[in-house]
């Protein structure tokens, strides 16, 4: 009987079982289907951590499930999503563009001002943010916390021009 159920499930290509197998949680398939009555991936919208605890799923497995569901759904779109402060800081767009406002007319740009920061020309700024950093350019400092796939640490990056830049880095476990 078990072999027939497994073959039937494989032949149908049931999306829920395939999804759980992709994230290596296939051992919870029967309990999730029978005890939580989740038969489609979208049903996880109504599942809580306590429900997953009741079927014997540990916290690391729950995090893996929620992370996979987030990746599967894709980024949240729409005007209701606030722009994070990190995006504002690290984006090359100006604050006026981020707030979707026209440039302020009360302060006309002076001829000596450029849209890019005075400390770095456009090409150099692009070089800093769009490249891999060599290990010898980094100094790893104190631990900030734990992430899904590793430890997050504070560090200092010494750029090829000798400028020291504070940074955070994920150290894979």
Automatic annotation (TrEMBL):
InterPro entries given for it?
A: ACK/TNK-like_SAM, TNK-like_SAM
What is this protein's record name?
non-specific protein-tyrosine kinase
Start and end of every ACK/TNK-like SAM domain? 16-71
**Keywords, ordered alphabetically:** ATP-binding, Kinase, Nucleotide-binding, SH3 domain, Transferase, Tyrosine-protein kinase
Q: Report the superkingdom from the record.
A: Eukaryota
- Please state the Enzyme Commission number of this protein: 2.7.10.2
Provide a Gene Ontology MF annotation, just one.
Answer: ATP binding
Q: What is the lineage of its organism?
A: Eukaryota, Metazoa, Chordata, Craniata, Vertebrata
In this chain, the stretch annotated as Disordered covers: 94-121
Locations of Pro residues compositional bias? 105-120
Q: Does the keyword rRNA processing apply?
A: no
């Amino acid at each position: 009987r078990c072999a027939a159920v497994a073959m039937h499930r494989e032949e149908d290509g049931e999306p829920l079982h395939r999804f759980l197998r992709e994230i290596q949680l296939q051992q919870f398939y029967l309990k999730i289907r029978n005890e939580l009555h989740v038969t489609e991936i979208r049903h996880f919208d109504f599942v809580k951590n306590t429900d997953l605890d009741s079927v014997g799923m540990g916290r690391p497995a729950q995090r893996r499930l929620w992370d996979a569901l987030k990746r599967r759904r894709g980024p949240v779109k729409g005007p209701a999503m606030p722009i994070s402060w990190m995006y504002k800081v690290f984006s090359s767009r100006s604050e006026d563009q981020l707030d979707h406002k026209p440039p302020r007319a009360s302060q006309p740009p002076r001829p000596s001002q450029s849209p890019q920061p005075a400390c770095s020309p456009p090409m150099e700024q692009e070089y800093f943010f769009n490249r891999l950093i060599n290990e010898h350019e980094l100094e790893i400092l104190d631990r900030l916390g734990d992430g899904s796939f590793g430890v997050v640490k504070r560090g200092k990056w010494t750029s090829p021009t000798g400028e020291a830049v504070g940074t955070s880095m994920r150290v894979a476990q």
